[in-house]
Fold this protein.
Amino acid sequence: MSIKECPFCGSTDSQIHNHVVTNHFRITGLDWFVQCSNCKTEGPGADSKELAIRAWNEGTPRYHRVFKMEEALKRIRDNSWAELGGPPKWLGEIAREALE
């Protein structure tokens, strides 16, 4: 089964990865997922390579770095920063520019 292009950036350079699943310091298995090498989008975790590829090809990505960055920028932009005496001016400008 071939891996389809990334639904976010269109790259065809995606790889299958796995990570160890643990339960209180005990290894319980492997979780497989497809990740775009270009924008780092990850597909949902699955019990096998084939299921991970199928989930990716069906278009159900679970994580995208841009979305995570957008959330962080909104928090920076919207935070009052009163307790810190205000954010550095450049930080607020970067957040506003990135969100436009």
Q: What stands out?
A: Residues 14 and 37 are 5 Å apart (CA to CA). Strands lie at 14-23, 26-36.
